[in-house]
Specification:
Helices cover 65% and strands 0% of the residues. The protein is mainly α. The chain has 2 domains: 39 residues; 32 residues. It is built from 3 helices and no strands.
Amino acid sequence: MGMFGHTPKNKRFDYTPRYYDERKERLEAIKKKHENPERAEIEARIRGKLQRHATQRKNPFMNTSVRFIIILALLLAITYFILTYLNIPIW
């Protein structure tokens, strides 16, 4: 009976970082403060173009249909060669 009434206690999370570089944090803050706003716009524009290009290239219908045609052609060729090798009339 005692095991059904037992509820586990909450586990605590205690994290203390091992290394802290105050100079590095100050440099990063200064870089963010003086960052070129035009650069962020250019990067966003380039990223958008790359994403659009990637989605336009991926056309799953075209890939599957081409793959299907190639596999079908290979299977027909293999079947033709097997039937001619065994001297079985095709028509």
